[in-house]
Amino acid sequence: MPLPKLIATDLDGTLLDRQGRLSERNQKALQTAREHGILTLAVTARPPRAVHRVPGLTAVLDGALCSTGSIRFDPVTQTAELRHAIPLALARELHRQLRIALPDADFAVETGQALRIQGEYFRGLRLTDPWIPVTADEDLIDTSDPVVGLLVHDTASTGPAMQEATAHIALPGVHLWGWGRYPEIECTAAGAEKGATLAAWCAERGIGAEDVIAFGDMPNDVSMLAWAGRSYAMEGAHADAAAAATGHAEPAAEDGVAKTIEALLQR
């Protein structure tokens, strides 16, 4: 079986451990792949700053598709390019409907540079994140900043309950992503979807789906796993991700990505 031209991997729950760290083994596997001429690309819900802050990660990446494909990030030049954002009027209507459906939830807007936070949960999430507090009476959507993503968290709820409560929300131009049982929903522009943005990135470099290996574990990875010629869902992955993948890898906590890459390079 020929070597791929690209390894595309999700980060949290896939390449990184539960503390968001890159293991030495995973780092070495990606570096070895690059030494074999294979490109490496992170495809993640994280914004660029949250990719950059993982020790040792950007050194073994050729690029990153951040915020579920909304932003392209170049780890060499440390530059980011916004590709997809939710139109402001649509973001306001989405926020209005979500507040009705989930009255106890906290909200945050990801601008690509910072978080605009409405509620207490997101304040303590990452103390290193730049964030702007917004009261319940203020407009969460600031006309001076793009809406890369709208995040919704309800600590007292569950992922399935939140998804059921918002199932009726079907606004053209926006997509709502669930995280399994975790009580959070991420909303992105409809064009911000891992499979499509990965395909576009590859097309610009003359790379076909048959030359791509992808790793993931959550519903927002499904399109990427389905598009790639070879794909691996991590052990314990969401059922939708597992069904979309052509193969399965050991858990992130056991360096499943590294083990798969090592086996591939030894053939």
Automatic annotation (TrEMBL):
One GO CC term on file: cytosol
UniProtKB keywords: Hydrolase
Any one GO molecular function term: magnesium ion binding
Keyword Hydrolase appears in the UniProt entry: yes
Organism encoding this protein: Glycomyces luteolus
Keyword Oxidoreductase: no
Protein name: HAD family hydrolase
Ranges that cross the membrane: none
Pfam families: Hydrolase_3
